[in-house]
Amino acid sequence: MSLILATRLFLYLQLVLGTLQSPGLYNGVSAILHTHRTLAFIIPVVAFLAFRPSKAVPGGAVKLLARFGPTISLLLGLINWVGFKMLAVMPADAYLIVMVIHMLIGIAVVAFVEIAAGKERRALAAAQADAATAS
């Protein structure tokens, strides 16, 4: 399985787990919470490796956001977890604001990864077609 496919699958799983954790759903299920937190540390590493610069695929803002976007979402999630849950220094209103931003950035990261994956697939297909016509 390629790193790009793994990134995409992990992100969709993360999106589902994050939605299930929303207040009023399955917020008290510790397995969902722990899986969400574990994936939160795995996804930035996989995305960083999957969208590294290459000669065959041009870079750009979308690829850069696909590569580093999961880290930004992770940092916002850590701010919420440490500030509100562990240290109890973050007021509930600030917690909800940061959580909404965390969720919106998470959704945007899924979009950036999908766009970057499509661009990479098309660039590699074009490079293979050029190689086939050249020989």
What are the key terms here?
4 helices, elongated, mainly alpha, 135 residues
Q: What's this entry about, in short?
A:
With 135 residues, the protein is mostly helical. The chain has helices spanning 3-20, 30-50, 61-86, 92-134. The protein contains 4 helices and no strands.
The level of helicity is: over 70%
How much strand content do the residues show?
under 5%
Supply the helix-strand structural class.
mainly alpha
Termini Cα gap? 29 Å
Which stretches of 5+ consecutive residues score pLDDT under 50? none
The H-and-E topology, N to C, reads as HHHH
Helix segment tally? 4
The number of distinct β-strands equals 0
What is the radius of gyration computed over CA atoms, rounded to a whole number of angstroms?
Answer: 18 Å
Question: Secondary-structure map with pairings?
Answer:
Elements: H1 3-20, H2 30-50, H3 61-86, H4 92-134
Helix pairs in contact: 1-2, 1-4, 2-3, 3-4
Describe the protein in words.
By secondary structure, the protein is mainly alpha-helical. Helix content is 80%, strand content 0%. The longest helix has 43 residues. The model has no long low-confidence stretch (mean pLDDT 88).
